[in-house]
Amino acid sequence: MSERFTPDGDEGLVNLAIDPDVLARELAAELLGDPLDEIDLDDPQEEALHAARECDQGLAWLQQGHEERLQGLRVFCEHRDPRAVPLLLPLLSQACPVVRMSAVYALGRNPSPSAVEPLLQLLQVDSNAYVRKAAAWSLGNYPDAPVLNPLIRSLQVDVASVRLWATVALAEAGMTSPAKADLAAGQLLISLRIDSEPVVRSNCIWALGRLVEQLVEPRRADVIEAFVNALLHDQETSVRDEARTALEQLENPEILERLQTLVDEGLL
């Protein structure tokens, strides 16, 4: 499924943070002929030097005009530097939605307790879906903050693109404890049954697969049955494939035997 988001570790989340359709058009082009590009990045020390110099330049850009500011935001969507946070926070209230969106992504890459409330506010009230989508992703990097209920609300009522990212963030935030996993799983199970968008349903399955080890009975059994039900009855091939993958990844002999029985009976 081309739009499925499956972040594997920190770098995977960074790659997800940059919306290719929007930032490719709106953010300023990378500088051509920058001598930083000639550094041998196979050398860890040189790589660290390259990143540090990029961050220094990014900090300077954030304090300049619109185009330079966009360049600086791009830097901090890719790199962590706590010096950037005080410069990023005021950009969350900028009139330009591309600036707000990019600042939100950068604060997902550079989490700070001071960013939690403004990010939650943007998730709930910003008029631009791209900004809300960015906020949903970024809040997944704040698992210890009170983000679960706002993300659940977004999964219930927002547009499809925001719902899609809310599933990812719920998986990230829910993995920190069984109680949080159960709360997140409850809404993901509902959305798996009722959401009109196949890509959202697929992501619900993926997110539940991430949470399943944190769940206790009877919720864990509910998740497995939901996977089986999606495998047998969902109208979209992509969702059925996601369900089968999730069941196989459980590596439970009884579940694998059940899958084989379905195959033998011609139901798969």
Supply the key terms.
268 residues, mainly alpha
Describe, in plain words, how this protein is organized in 3D:
The chain is an all-alpha fold and 268 residues long. 68% of the residues lie in helices and 0% in strands. It is built from 15 helices and no strands. It is elongated and about 65 Å long. Mean pLDDT is 86; it is low at 6-18 and 26-41.
CA radius of gyration is 20 Å
Q: Could you tell me the strand content as a percent range?
A: under 5%
Structural class: mainly alpha
Largest sheet: none
Total of helices: 15
Brief overview, please?
With 268 residues, the chain is mainly alpha-helical.
List the helices and strands and how they pair.
Blueprint: H1 9-17, H2 20-26, H3 44-62, H4 66-78, H5 85-88, H6 97-109, H7 116-125, H8 129-139, H9 148-157, H10 160-174, H11 178-194, H12 198-211, H13 219-233, H14 237-249, H15 253-264
Helix pairs in contact: 3-4, 4-6, 6-8, 7-8, 8-10, 9-10, 9-11, 10-11, 10-12, 11-12, 11-13, 12-14, 13-14
